[in-house]
Amino acid sequence: MFENKKILILGMARSGYEAAKVLIKRGxxxxxxxxxxxxxxxxxxxxxxxxxGVTVVLGTHPDDLLDDTFDYLIKNPGVPIRHKYVVxxxxxxIEVINEVELAYRLLPKTVKLIGITGTNGKTTTTTLTYxxxxxxxxxxxxxxxxxxxxxxxxxxxxxxxxxxxxxxxAQQGENLVTFKPNVGLMTNLSPAHLEFFGDYDYYKSVKAxxxxxxxxxxxxxxxxxxxxxxxLLKGIKSQTKYxxxxxxxxxxxxxxxxxxxxxxxxxxxxxxxxxxxxxxxxCMSAIAIVKEFGVDNEIxxxxxxxxxxxxxxxxxxxxxxxxxxxxxxxxxxxxCTQIAxxxxxxxxxxxxxxxxRGQVLEDLTPxxxxxxxxxxxxxxxxxxxxxxxxxxxKTFCYEYMKDGFKELYNYSSPGDVxxxxxxxxxxxxxxxxxxxxxxxxxxxxxxxxxxx
Length: 452
Prior knowledge:
- Residues 116-289 form the Mur ligase central domain.
- It is found in: Cytoplasm.
- One of its GO terms (molecular function) is UDP-N-acetylmuramoylalanine-D-glutamate ligase activity.
- A hairpin with a 2-residue loop joins strand 12 (252-255) and strand 13.
- The protein is globular, with a radius of gyration of 24 Å.
- By secondary structure, the chain is α/β, with parallel strands linked by helices.
- The chain has helices at 13-24, 43-52, 84-91, 99-106, 122-137, 170-173, 194-197, 200-212, 227-232, 277-291, 297-306, 334-341, 381-390, 401-411, 433-451, and strands at 6-10, 29-34, 55-58, 72-75, 95-97, 112-117, 141-145, 163-167, 183-186, 219-223, 239-244, 252-255, 258-261, 264-268, 315-320, 323-327, 348-352, 371-376, 394-397, 417-420.
């Protein structure tokens, strides 16, 4: 399979780069095309592919590049689903797949594949599942998918009976054909990425694809409290199992401040560091998955109780003189900050602001009842200041977070939460929001050193 074929890869990025390396080593004729100019791509990677024999066409999508001599089109997940090459390939009966489908067809047949998808919670659930299984099975476990490691990149490391924990995005689901996980989990569903997929129904159908590919030998785990998930997957052939944050069910559930698995108490919630009901659901999801592999409660408790969360997503940073710091720099919209604020019952001091996007700050109001102070920063800081003061909340206004951080801290008391959850993007001051989060963590570390 995938030998001595002519293949066009549309879009480079990490997945296109890894797919090209796999395919050229199997004796294929490989052409990689990306609309970006060469100086905007990784120069070393482009040079490596050319040295391997890949034809690299950059900066344009020539009309005559794709013709009926090609056997496959490998589409990068970020490429629009109606790109002219995709349309033309289908008219020419050329199979259109993606890097995930390519790698899946090349995996050893005895590998156990876990696929985690949904609208929210995928990355945290995937990371936590991986950490638990890694603790239980050591080097037999691999991490892949939308979490930053293309499935093609681990093909050389995977052997028979290994376990792959994979985050599957909606964009990756678009061009799946035969891909199916042995254990699949759907965290939840709500409208998202509609600008890419066109409408919610199509988005849902893409999310469901890997579950409808499953057989009776496979397992599908669903969020019983999400009606869209339950309705969407009611026709699948696989064995269905469930988790619930609201009801005691035959599965994984929350009861009396503990998580249970079919009546057996697994972990008390008071030792779980990651905050919020959404994170308890992520923990339940991970427990449901790892129990399919027989992991005992002791290992689950050890890993979950020490898990600080995915970096930059409501990530526990540290506790300094009784104040607990959380980094939620990935909260680049109002909805994410609503979730963050609803995760805490303690008095909270929040850092808000960044790129001016015309955010409707008033949508935060129902979630601000525990907020005792605001540090408004960035391009929209004056509007944030006016909003905070309209609520009667003490608001410190600084252009840069580092300049107002100490004043915010001095206003806090032991037992308070200090939260970076800006509700907007970071591009007014930072290359990416992760840089903003790293700065916040640096400020916390410096504060801790001074308090010693």
